[in-house]
Amino acid sequence: MLTRIVNNSPKLCTFFEQLNVELSKPQSQHILNMADALLVCEDTKTLAALQRQFIQAPDPSNMADFLRISPWLSGDVRAAIRVNQVSWAVEQAERTGLPKVIYINIDDSLGEKDKDTRHLEPVDWFHDHSESTRSKPRYKKAFCYLECTLRIGQIVVTVDLRLYLRAKTVRRINRHRPPERRIPFRSKNSLARIILEALRPLLPKGWIVYVQFDSWYASEKLIKYVRRQGWHVVCGLKCNRKLNGVRIDQLAYALRHRRYKKVQLTAADGDRTTYYVRQTTGRLVDVPFDVRVYFSKRHPREKSQAYFMST
C-alpha cells in the first residue's frame, strides 16, 4: 500500500480549528491523523492500516491509547461538530435563498465486524433487517449506531452519531466495571429523543421542521414529543398499528375498491419510481391528534404494501 499523506489536509485542519474543542496539541494531532487517514484509506480500517497512510507516524499503540485512556470526552467533540454543522447548513441555505424547510432523518445502521471479534465492547450479534427475509433471518457480528442527518434543499450534513448497545451487551460490560463507571441501557427510541433534544436549541426560529424515521421508531412517545416542539412527523408504520381502533392492514383491505393515486419519485441518481397510493386520516392509539396514513404499493396487483403516516 502506497503512503498517501505527507501533511494533514488544510481543509480538514481549518474545519477542526473552527470547532474550538479544548484538546492538547498531541490529542488534536491524533484526531486529525485519524480523520485524514479514514478519508483516504482503501484497506480494512484498522489502526495499523491508518498509521501506514503517513510517512512519519508514531506506533499504532499511541493511537489506541488516545482512544482508550487519553483524558478527553467524545461528547464534547460531538457537540462541537453538531453546532458547526447546523450553523453552516443554515448559513448556506440563507445565502442561496433556499426555502426555510428542514428535514431531520434518524436511522440506525450496522458496522459489520469479523464473526470472531471478541474484545471490542460494543460488538455483538445483531439482526440485519436489510438482508433478512421472512424465511431466512440474517445475523451479523457488528456494532450498531444511530445516525441523524439534517437536510435543507440539496444541503445534507450529519449532525449526530450515537452508539446503541443491546441490554445484554450493557450487562456484560457493567459486570467488569466499578459502580461509578457503569453505563445505563438506552433503547433506540430513547437515543432518538436524546438526539432531537440536543438538536432542538440549534434550529432557527420560524422554520418548518420535518422529522423522518422508519417504523421501528414510530412510538407514541416520540411522535408526541416531536409534535410538542411544533415539528411535523413523517414515518413508517407497522401493519399491526391501529387507526381509529382498526389495524391498518385491515383498513387497507377495506379500502381496496378506492382508486389509487399515482405518485412519481425521483431518486438522487435520476431514476424515477411510480408508487400507487391510497390515504385516509384518523387517530393512532394513544396519539391525541389526527394523522394521515398512506398505503403504498409499487404495482396495483402487488400483495404486500408499505404503510406511512404524516402529521
Q: Give the oligomeric state of the chains in this entry, treating copies of one chain as homo and distinct chains as hetero.
A: single chain
How many DSSP H or I helices? 9
Helix content: 25-40%
What is the number of beta strands?
A: 12
Shape: globular
Keywords:
311 residues, 12 strands, alpha+beta, ten-stranded mixed sheet, 3 domains, two-stranded antiparallel ribbon, 9 helices, globular
Description:
The protein is of the alpha+beta class and 311 residues long. It folds into 3 domains: 72 residues, no CATH class; 163 residues, no CATH class; 74 residues, no CATH class. Helix content is 32%, strand content 27%. The protein has 9 helices and 12 strands. Strands 1, 2, 3, 4, 5, 6, 9, 10, 11 and 12 form a 10-stranded mixed β-sheet that branches. A hairpin with a 2-residue loop joins strand 3 and strand 4. It is globular. The model has no long low-confidence stretch (mean pLDDT 89).
Question: Any chance you could write out the topology, listing elements then pairs?
Answer:
Layout: H1 10-19, H2 25-40, H3 47-51, H4 60-68, H5 74-96, E1 101-112, E2 124-127, E3 139-152, E4 155-164, H6 167-174, H7 188-199, E5 208-213, H8 220-228, E6 232-237, E7 242-243, E8 246-247, H9 248-254, E9 261-266, E10 272-282, E11 291-297, E12 306-310
Parallel strand pairs: 1-5, 5-6
Antiparallel strand pairs: 1-3, 2-3, 3-4, 6-12, 7-8, 9-10, 10-11, 11-12
